[in-house]
Amino acid sequence: MIEEILARPLPGEGTAQESGQGAQGHQMVDLAAGDREPAELNAVVTALRSRFGPSKTVALDGLMDPSLRRLPGPPLADVLAGRAIEMYGWSVGQRWLGVGLFKGVGDAAPRLTAVVSAVAAPTPAGQEGPAALSWVEELAALTGWRGPRRLVDWESVERKLRLRLPRDYRLLAETFGAGTFDDNLELCAPGSKYLDLDLITTDPTEFAGPAPSSSPAIGLLQWAVTSAEHSFCWLVEDPDPDKWPVFARSDKWDPWERFDCSSAELVHRMLTDPQHPYSLARHFDTHWFTSAEQAAEAFWDDFHPHS
Predict the structure, then answer these.
(1) Higher pLDDT, 114 or 33
(2) Cα(207)–Cα(195) distance, integer angstroms
């Protein structure tokens, strides 16, 4: 049934028009045959993961994934707000597929529903697209961060590292600088006077160990670490740094976990998705960012209180 739904023309796509099937650019399909129990969602998601690969949690307990705003047509985040209870998504060819539980009308039970949209066109190389900007902006909004923008000499930084860095990370470092999310996830940034948070001087092998690759030319560069010493690194495996995956693990004895997303997206998911393997959302209802300078000032005040 899912293949048939994915093959349908979308509203406003070409000359095909669908009446009464969602807003222009996407389509909603009720998957329920009669009344289905909410628990059936788990079986459907498991089957789709085996077919299409890992899913992304795009709605959970009232939180909506900001990436929904980047799909063609009216923002799905607005269309689904207040309706989606729990929802998971996949990119399948030229389609985006979401499956989840939606609130019923009145006192009716939740309905198992599929949502299909066109996949947004990729950002042309060399352009700062909204995809990169969105995750950083969403993080700033989520944490209430209003700090000044950091000036970074990226040419000098990349010359010292002998690497170009992902555009997404550059925006992240310029927006936040070195510091800590939720007093737990420490973000490294170039030029920090706190050496353990300086991307250039911090030792990427301290927690990372050998790269999970057979190629000696491929290495790891650590850009974040938690207070529990969970390490987050890029696998430097592609000439295009925007394609570097993130690898994470709890310590050197654990296997690596690969995340095919940007740094800012990973941080956002850690803060908002209770099911993320490195979730902070399970521990905090609100989120904040503390710059390294703010943390140093607080530490000084604790030991040198004003008279």
Answers:
(1) 114
(2) 16
